[in-house]
Amino acid sequence: MKDQLLLLISAIACAFGAWAFWHYLDADAVVALMTLALMSAVADNLRLRRKLRKTERRG
Fold first, then answer.
1. Residue 32: helix, strand or coil by DSSP?
2. Number of domains the chain is built from
3. CA-CA distance, 8 to 15, in Å (whole number)?
4. pLDDT of 3-20, one tens digit each?
């Protein structure tokens, strides 16, 4: 019962967050999502470059 209640509360919080995101950003929401995607890709690229450099030194 406790788990179901926590799941319901987290679902309501996520739904409210999604509504607030689209409601307040309106047309700029797509720009915000694209910016987040670009920043994520750059961060992943940097992480992979560091990992590659580290493995090249060993081998």
1. helix
2. 1
3. 11
4. 999 999 999 999 999 999
Closest C-alpha to 17, from 27, 29, 28: 29
Type of residue numbered 39 = M
- In the chain, beta strands by DSSP E: none
3-class DSSP string for 15-30: HHHHHHHHHHHCCHHH
pTM of the model: 0.69
Residue 27 has φ and ψ, to the nearest 5°, of -75, -25
Which amino acid type is present at position 52? L
Instruction: Quote the CA–CA distance of 36 and 20 in Å, as a whole number.
Output: 17
The length of the chain is 59
